[in-house]
Design a protein that fits this description.
By secondary structure, the protein is mainly β. The protein has 2 helices and 5 strands. The protein has a single domain, classed as Roll (Hypothetical upf0131 protein ytfp). It starts with a strand and ends in a 5-residue tail after the last strand.
Length: 116
């Protein structure tokens, strides 16, 4: 499954080279509807559900041979413990994004919300 990014993992941003460069076969501009970007109280950029809003980002189609390793590398960056999809600040969740070529299910790092 591809990875939708909207912050420092985008091309040209500070975390792209160390975590995604050379690990994908293609990238497309993409939008995540009904979500908004904001800076959370801990100072990190997050996205959270917000009807009527959209987040613009990039959709990376990861190279199959390194997809698991790449997601694990990105999970570490987002402080998600190994074997989990949720950390203190982010949760890696399946979302549906839109590109010029259609819709795609993708992983995205969204704000982790308190819950059971």
């Amino acid at each position: 499954m591809p990875l939708f990014v909207y912050g420092t993992l985008r091309q040209g941003e500070c975390n792209h080279d160390a975590h995604l460069a050379g690990r994908f076969v293609s990238v497309l501009p993409a939008r995540l509807k009904d979500h908004a970007r904001r800076v959370a109280s801990h100072g990190y950029l997050v996205i959270r559900p917000e009807p009527g809003s959209e987040v613009v980002g990039e959709l990376f189609f990861l190279a199959q041979s390194v997809a698991c390793e790449t997601l694990a590398r990105c999970d570490r960056l987002e402080e998600i413990p190994p074997g989990s999809l949720r950390g203190d600040w982010y949760e890696r969740r399946v979302v549906e994004v839109e590109t010029a070529g259609g819709r795609h299910r993708a992983w995205a790092y969204v704000e982790a919300v308190a819950g059971p």
